[in-house]
Amino acid sequence: MLPDELKFKLREMIAGAESPREKAIDVMFAIQELQGWMSDEAMVEAAELLGMTPLELEELATFYDYIYRSPVGRYVIKVCDSTVCWLQGHQRVIDYISSRLSIPMGGTSADGLFTLLPVCCIGYCDRAPAMVVNNRVFGNLTPEKIDRVLTQLAEKADFSGSE
Amino acid sequence: MPRLIIDEREIEVPEGTKVIDAAQRLGIVIPRFCYHEALGSVGACRMCAVKFLQGPFKGVQMSCMIDARDGMVVSTTDEEAVLFRKRVIELLMMNHPLDCPVCDEGGQCLLQDETVSGGHGRRRFRGPKRTYRDQYLGPYIKHEMNRCIHCYRCARFYQEFAGYRDLGPLRIGDRMYFGRFSDGSLESPFSGNLVDICPTGVYTDTTARFKLRRWELERSPSLCNQCSLGCNTAANAHHRGVMRVEARFNSEVNGYFLCDAGRFGFSYSNGGTGHRERPLSPRIAGAPASAHAALTAAREALDNIAAKYGPRAIAAAGSHRNSFESQCMLDLICRTRDWRGPVFFWGPEDRRKTLSAVEGLDGEIAVSMREIEKADFVIVVGADPLNEAPMGALALRQAARKNAPVVTIDPRPIFLPCGFEHFPAAPEKIERYLGMLVWKAVEKDAARFGKDAEEFCRYLAAECESCEPPAAMARLSQLLASCSRPAIICGTDVTLQTTPAFAADCVRLLRLAGKQAGLFFLLPGAGSFGSALLSGTDDKTFADLVEDIEAGRVRALVVGESDPFHHYPDRARLESAMSKLELLVAIDYFPSETVRRASFFYPSSTIFETGSTYINQEGRVQFAHPVHCGGVPIRGGEHPPRVYSDLVPGGDHLPAWKALWQIAGTPDKDAGPGGISPEKFIPAALPAFDGLKAGHGYPVDGPRLLTAKAGFQGKWERASADARTGPENPEAFELLMVEWMFGTSEFSAWSDSLDAAAAAPHMSMNSKDAARIGLCDGDTVSVELDGGAFEIVVSVSDRTAEGVLVIPRHHSFEWRKMKDSPARVSAEKIRKI
Questions:
Q1: Does B182 touch chain A (CB under 8 A)?
Q2: Least enclosed by CB within 10 Å: which of B326, B415, B719, B774?
Q3: pLDDT tens column, B819-829
Q4: What digits encode the pLDDT tens for the residues B559-585?
């Protein structure tokens, strides 16, 4: 069940649109921001708010990389696997993160903090290899830099709710 | 008309023809997956690549994306194009499981054909194949996603063409998945078409699963006889059972598709386990008898009645599911033997409505389903296309997709798979609303309509004066005024007697206003048009026969493919009348109550076992060829008898007309049983059939039996008078008994395959009415009628007309407790329980 407060906000957001379904992605992002991912229940409720069938919303949700249909960690690490990063050794980056966090590609760390996923070109080719963590981009990755970023994020994580 | 050269052969095609279709006209079938004539081009699969050598395009291009133009020179065999296609099919086959030996599609699989035609034989890719989890999609369709080649045909048919929103493309890249949000029955009643259009075995027919291989099947061009549209089908039989029904292309009728009731509603014809028992053995007083004994005994019993009480003591009844052969035979017998009848209609209202529809339709205004798709404004009056003629709803959607406004005027809470404007209207208000809508659109031109229309115009003007039109009506009238090809779809079930003629007059008025207006009726059954053509002027229906039986004027009843117990609204009265009969002879293929009670029963052949002529609701004569001889199916039934015989077990059934002819007794002056054939007795009953040889002799698209020009019907005065006097008790609800796509027809009652899709019955009523008598959506009520009560769940909607209770003639509960028809029930007779 979506909280009433969120539902109210979403209804307002949808009411401002010319046609409800154009807000589908924004609605899913808003829900994800709160709940971390799009559960089946959230999908059904969001579809109802948008006047879409769950299937129609699912078509969108499963098309986009940034909408999660299964639970992810607090930080989603996306390593670019497009041409330039690939040339610059993206596999080494993936291997390093995998072993540091003890998770395979697609996995979530035991503490629930990190999920590792691939991503298509993010336009950071001049600073390859690169990765995105939630909404922040990091380039020129080296093991030391990755260590620094992950340690910072782990320390910053506040389990009471807000960051 | 562009002329182009394809593979060194010249062809001229209509403007707008795609190169892929132009080639097909030359007999060159260019490989394709995503392209389908009904769905149009998307150019997604890249399989139809050809090389353009000269003309406005050059090089390898997709033949489904390019319109044929003058001066084009196209090669389908050019080396570059052939190699292109070979690579494409190799790519598409990369993840295909190659499970053809266990796949139901094997042998009729486009993917198999195109793999071979593309020249791909050896898999080079060594990686693992992608696999999926399949979904449960309901009783009809089996999902097998691993076989998918991502052509999108299913999603395009399901969402764009048919208008349902619960199956579609999910995920991305090579993980693309076609399915639902979660497991569950497909909502679309056109889901069976997925089996036909999927180029491989992702969607296969669950009812036929693992029972057959395509090459073992006996196949024949057949028809669907479950509603009045007469959709064309291909019937497939194996081991004396019908295994599968597929859509057969007919450009004017059903196009490429078929509804699920028509596709899966054949299991009644198969005896044996898995289906309810089809009576395949002749019976005398309930006990099995030989064919000869049953026919002879029935004939003698009838002769005795005729000798004792005179031939008028024998009556014959047919129905709307009779083939035209059977109807003509009933007519012939009654004429030559002086029996009473035949009656084909249940009550005088049904009869008059169907007759006035058939009389009001002429060659000028009648439109086919294809023309409905091309209409630019459609008015649906007193008709529920999705339930009464499902493929009609699909045609409506095609019109709506081209932005034709669709207006429904009906007491039921209509649903259509397209956008439409619904005016809830009790039956007596339907004509008024239709009149307003049409009159406001043509009013300004009325002066030049001439004398014929004068009176009708005056009447409509007066009607419009007398009451306020519903909101939105004025806007729709304006749209109607500006359209050029409007069509009216008029039902004959819940409408008043006068409505079909009124609708025909409205179409004529629109034509006077310069529009190519068309008329499309929905009739009660596949045989309705034929029975109307044969119904004489005596105005007799089954209701009169019941009176005749009660009064002792009729002592014997011969029923040919008809079950009064299914249709007659007063079961108690029917039971007592039937028990008064000295003799009841039934000929049928359903194990009906009438068959159970018959003193003599003879099994008749289904549409799959005998050639049958049907005339659809637009007067189109079509023929269903037999597909197999019938009998006890080898699969799924008992072991065939272990006695030596050269007869087919359960093969005693005869076409109803033959059985009738033999039971009626051949008078000396006629030739023997062999001497009669439909080619002779059909033209004798209806001269319009002169020169039409039954079966193979009909033209492919079916000749249409319509009068040249019918003119204004002018029956509206009486309608207005009826409507104004109103019912005696205006507070009472009118009970409207209606058809559902699944659950109400006789086919539904005796086909397990249809029963699987039938929803539980519910009664629809307007929300104001419900509030007035204290009912909520979902309440269970007891409705007390003159002949007893029944219980039903209430469904409340603003979209149901006020003052009516809409109830399906569902076979799962006994609703036949009405002394009058249409019945009325006052509020205090509806109790919440």
A1: yes
A2: B774
A3: 877 788 988 89
A4: 999 999 999 999 999 999 999 999 999
Helices assigned H by DSSP within B493-556: 499-512, 528-534, 542-550
State the fold for domain A4-61. Answer: Arc Repressor Mutant, subunit A (1.10.10)
Chain A, window 39-58: residues with a beta carbon less than 8 angstroms from a chain B beta carbon: 40, 43-44, 52-56, 58
Residues in chain B with CB shorter than 8 Å from the CB of A56 are 165, 168
| Cis amide bond preceding A20, omega within 30 | no
pTM greater than 0.95 = no
Identify the DSSP state of B156. I
* Domain extent listing, chain B: 3-92, 217-265+606-650, 283-347+541-605+653-676, 352-521, 727-832
Instruction: Report pLDDT digits (tens) over B44-83.
Output: 899 999 999 999 999 999 999 999 999 999 999 999 999 9
Neighbours of A163 (CB within 10 A): 9
Kindly report, residue by residue over B764-798, the tens digit of the pLDDT.
999 999 999 999 999 999 999 988 999 999 999 99
Burial class of residue B452, CB neighbours in 10 A (0-12, 13-18, 19+)? middle
What lies within 8 Å, CB to CB, of B83 at 6+ separation is none
Tell me the H-state helices in B93-178. 110-118, 153-155
The answer to whether the bond into B486 is cis (omega within 30° of 0) is: no
Q: How confident is the model at residue B656 (pLDDT cuts 50, 70, 90)?
A: very high
Alpha-carbon gap, residue B474 to B736, rounded angstroms: 29
Q: In whole angstroms, what is the distance from residue B242 CA to residue B269 CA?
A: 7
In this predicted structure, which of B163-177, B270-284, B673-687 has the lowest mean pLDDT?
B270-284
- Specify the CATH number of the domain A75-156: 3.40.30.10
Chain B residues near residue A21 by CB distance under 8 angstroms: none
In B421-495, alpha helices (H):
427-442, 451-466, 473-482
CA distance B755 to B207: 13
Round to whole Å and give the CA distance between B623 and B248. 13
Instruction: List the strands of the sheet with B733-738, edge to edge.
Output: B824-825, B733-738, B804-808, B762-766, B788-797, B780-785, B830-832
Token duo for residue B465: 């004066």
- φ, ψ at B560 (rounded to 5°): -105, 110
pLDDT of residue B700: 73
